[in-house]
Amino acid sequence: MKTRILVLPGAGEANIDWPRIAGAQIAASYEELAAEFCFAMQHSRVEISLVVFERSVALRTFIDFLSRPKRDFRGDVLFIGEEDIFISSILTGDGRVLYRLSEQDLEFYLFVQLKKLSEDEGDMDARLPGHVGESPAPGTDSQWGTSPFLTFE
């Protein structure tokens, strides 16, 4: 089964260099992202592990997206706003939970998720946002290692 990340980036500067991440599908509009998401839910060959709204929609639109019934969706939905970061994840039983994240939480979450995706796909170097144990890149304060994909100020 092919795993994908659906991304709707905003017009401003992104924290993540999505085009460099294999498995990331960039949508041009909310409507395109919603259509791709619906298609993936109807076809078992594709699994969406993460839907990302990075500075592209209002918080209300993110909440509206979460409120639509998606019984079979087991992935996460991430909202990266100008000042707020939220993630919606599934619960062990039934339902979803919404968490507020700090930038450090987001960096760690993305590191783990992209590492997991790269291991699932069998291509470590193409997807890893950094390597644990390495020194942070100049100008970054990442404790998770160097990262050509993530930029946090």
Summarize this entry quickly:
The chain contains four helices and six strands. The protein is of the alpha/beta class and 153 residues long.
Number of helices: 4
Rg, alpha carbons: 15 Å
The share of residues in extended strands comes to: 15-25%
Biggest beta-sheet profile: 6 strands, mixed
Q: Calculate the mean pLDDT score and round it.
A: 76
Instruction: Give the N-terminus to C-terminus distance in angstroms.
Output: 36 Å
Shape, per Cα inertia axes: globular
Task: State the helical fraction.
Answer: 25-40%
Based on helices, strands and strand pairing, what is the structural class?
alpha/beta
Strand order of the largest sheet: 2-1-3-4-5-6
Order of helices and strands: EEHEHEEEHH
What do you see in this structure?
With 153 residues, the protein is of the alpha/beta class. Helix content is 29%, strand content 24%. β3, α2 (59-67) and β4 (76-80) form a beta-alpha-beta unit.
Question: Which secondary structure elements does this structure contain, and how are they paired or packed?
Answer:
Elements: E1 2-9, E2 24-26, H1 30-42, E3 46-54, H2 59-67, E4 76-80, E5 85-90, E6 96-100, H3 103-121, H4 124-127
Parallel strand pairs: 1-2, 1-3, 3-4
Antiparallel strand pairs: 4-5, 5-6
Features:
alpha/beta; disordered C terminus; single chain; 153 residues; six-stranded mixed beta sheet; 24% strand
